[in-house]
Structures are given as structure tokens and as C-alpha cells.
Design a protein that fits this description.
Strands 1, 2, 3, 4, 5, 6, 7, 8, 9 and 10 form a 10-stranded mixed beta sheet that branches. The chain has a single domain, classed as Ureohydrolase domain (Arginase, Chain A), CATH 3.40.800. It has 337 residues and is of the alpha/beta class. The chain binds manganese (II) ion. Its EC number is 3.5.3.8. InterPro entries: HutG, Ureohydrolase, Ureohydrolase_dom_sf. Pathway: Amino-acid degradation; L-histidine degradation into L-glutamate; L-glutamate from N-formimidoyl-L-glutamate (hydrolase route): step 1/1. Catalyzes the conversion of N-formimidoyl-L-glutamate to L-glutamate and formamide.
């Protein structure tokens, strides 16, 4: 009878993709592929988990990249990153589970419809006490993910901040082009500005040669948006970067974290929508990611813009999976209710 209550749009339950292997009870030899379980978000008989568990969801869209005149391909990111993740050893112990809840997928739907569908799926995950790990998709993933976190989190959390590892601000105005993969954070800004609500946004890894001057102008004129360029990060001691991040995120109650794979040098991440000849180092990024995760403030994170058809020997998908491996380990130890 109550079955009608939850009916997520554009939602595909995870199929037992070939990446999943038979269960291995021996935690010393198990891999992610032996441990990941499938879960149907539309099953309303599911009780919420008593303790925080992880939920993987794919966002199968590169429509925003296409509208933004980038090279498409990120629609296959979720499949390839899952394959890389499955091969990693299980370090999460016996009390943590990872559930693959499937994909948001709709080849004939608009980008905005898919973003809305993602936001409802994220709300449902929070309701179940599943920590959302969204596997993109173009960076249009971010707006859907963010809206879901904003609406789905406890009502007493009013200061949800945003940290983005990216070459681009993704703050482009969208009144002419319409929303796309380069406008998500402007949409977040506008959404909150119109409602008089909290918005704070930090971008780490900006490349001057990859952003128009009107974006630097917008950032300079707007409160609560800050950034470090990739070149600044290269020259700064690690502790200084960490201090800057800590200062900026100090008043955030919760953090939505997003990692654009195009923030890395193409030598590390060739399979992206927009290649980068300079770019952040994966190790520095990982150190900062671990630091952010250790704050206990992360509410959800995503890895976006992996484009398998442009990848070389799965380097980019593997790097994205590596971040999931390390982030989950820290979140499991710090986000204890
Ligand atoms: Mn981006």
C-alpha cells in the first residue's frame, strides 16, 4: 500500500555488474568487489541504519558537458570507477558496509530533470543514514548533489559550505546558455542569495588560463567565495594551505566536497572532459582531502568528470577510486554519531 510513497524518477537499481565478486568473509583478503552490497532506494520497507554506512550512486550524465561545449564521455564514469574500486582491498573493518544504490540515468531526460532526480535520491540516502558518494558524470552532478544535501540534512544544520577541487570556478552565468557543467556553483549561489540563506564556496586549484576574467571579477565582488590557484598551492608550504582551508571552513557546520578530475595534470588524469597541462598534484590533493575528512564535517562527496573514452589505461578512473578508498577510511572513523 505504501509502496507509492517513494518513487524516485530516473532511478535504476544497481545491477550486479561484473565488477562485483562473490562475498569474502575473510576481511584480510576481501576486496571492495567482495564487500559491496546492492540496495534499492525505492524499497520503503528499509529501516534507516543505526550507524552511518556508505552509499555509492552513479550520476550518468554528461549533458552539461555537451551544452558547455566540452567533449562528452563522462556519462560512462560511474561504470569505470566502480570497476577500479572493486579491485581495491577492504580496509573498512567489519562494522562498515558500502551499498551500491544504483544510478540516476535517463538518456531522454533533460539535464535539469536528472539533477532534480539526483537531489531526491540524495535526500533518500540521508534519510537511510547512508553517506552519499556520488560518482559522476559531468560537473553538473554538483548542483543536484548539493540541493539533495541541503534539503535532506537535519533542519538544524543551516551552514552547509562547499569545497571544490577544480581548475574552473564553474560560476558562469547561465541566463544565455542555460545551466550546464560550468554553472553549478553560480546556481547554488543564486539559490541561496534569493532566499537569504548561507552560501560559502572555496575552490582549490584554479588555473588563470582556464577562467575568463569576468569570473575573477564576479568572485572579487562576491562575499564568501575564495580560492587558491594551482600555482599558489605549488609554491605554498602545505601547512599554509591547510591553515587557509581551516580558516575559510571554520564556520561551516557541514561541508559538501566535490572533486573535479580535471583539476589534475593530464599526466595523472588524461580521461577528463577538459585536459589540463598544469594541474594539482594528486598527493597534495589527497593530503587536503584527508584533512577535510578528519574535520568530521563532510556530509557527502563526489568525483566528477571522469571520461573513460579519453582515459589512458584507466589512470583517471583509478585515481578517482583511490580518493574514495582513502576518504571513506577517514569518514568511517570520524563521522561517528
Ligand atoms: Mn568543474
Amino acid at each position: 500500500m505504501r509502496k507509492e510513497e517513494i518513487m524516485l524518477q530516473d532511478y535504476r537499481v544497481a545491477r550486479p555488474y561484473s565488477y562485483l565478486q562473490a562475498s569474502d568473509k575473510d576481511l584480510y583478503t576481501a576486496k571492495w568487489g567482495n564487500k559491496i552490497q546492492l540496495l534499492d532506494l525505492n524499497d520503503d520497507s528499509l529501516p534507516a541504519f543505526d550507524t552511518l554506512q556508505f552509499g555509492l550512486i552513479g550520476f550518468k550524465s554528461d549533458k552539461g558537458v555537451y551544452i558547455n561545449n566540452g567533449r562528452p564521455g563522462a556519462v560512462e564514469g560511474p561504470r569505470e570507477i566502480r570497476h577500479q574500486l572493486a579491485k581495491m582491498p577492504w580496509h573498512l573493518g567489519r562494522d562498515i558496509e558500502v551499498y551500491d544504490v544504483g544510478d540516476i540515468d535517463g538518456p531522454n531526460r533533460t539535464m535539469e530533470q536528472l539533477q532534480e532526480s539526483l537531489s531526491y535520491a540524495i535526500e533518500r540516502m540521508l534519510q537511510l543514514n547512508l553517506f552519499p558518494i556520488v560518482i559522476g558524470g559531468g560537473h553538473e552532478t554538483a548542483f543536484g548533489h548539493y540541493v539533495g544535501l541541503k534539503h535532506g540534512t537535519r533542519k538544524d544544520v543551516s551552514r552547509l559550505g562547499v569545497v571544490n577541487f577544480d581548475v574552473h570556478f564553474d560560476l558562469r552565468p547561465y541566463y544565455k546558455s542555460g545551466p550546464n557543467s560550468g554553472t553549478g556553483f553560480r546556481q547554488m549561489h543564486d539559490l541561496n542569495h534569493d532566499r537569504g540563506e548561507y552560501f560559502k564556496y572555496l575552490v582549490l586549484g584554479i588555473q588563470e588560463h582556464s577562467n575568463n576574467l569576468n569570473l575573477f571579477d564576479f568572485v572579487a565582488k562576491t562575499d564568501n567565495i575564495d580560492f587558491l590557484t594551482s600555482q599558489e598551492m605549488y609554491k605554498m608550504p602545505y601547512d599554509k594551505i591547510r591553515e587557509m582551508v581551516d580558516e575559510f571552513t571554520a564556520d561551516m557546520e557541514k561541508i559538501y566536497l566535490t572533486i573535479d578530475m580535471d583539476s589534475f595534470n593530464s599526466a595523472f588524469a588524461p580521461g577528463v572532459s577538459a585536459i589540463q597541462s598544469l594541474g594539482n598534484s594528486p598527493q597534495l590533493t589527497l593530503a587536503l582531502l584527508e584533512h577535510l575528512a578528519a574535520s568530521g564535517k563532510l556530509l557527502g562527496f563526489d568525483v566528477v568528470e571522469t571520461s573513460p573514452s579519453h582515459d589512458i589505461d584507466h589512470h583517471t578512473a583509478n585515481l578517482a577510486a583511490t580518493f574514495i578508498f582513502y576518504l571513506t577510511r577517514i569518514i568511517a572513523n570520524t563521522n561517528v554519531d
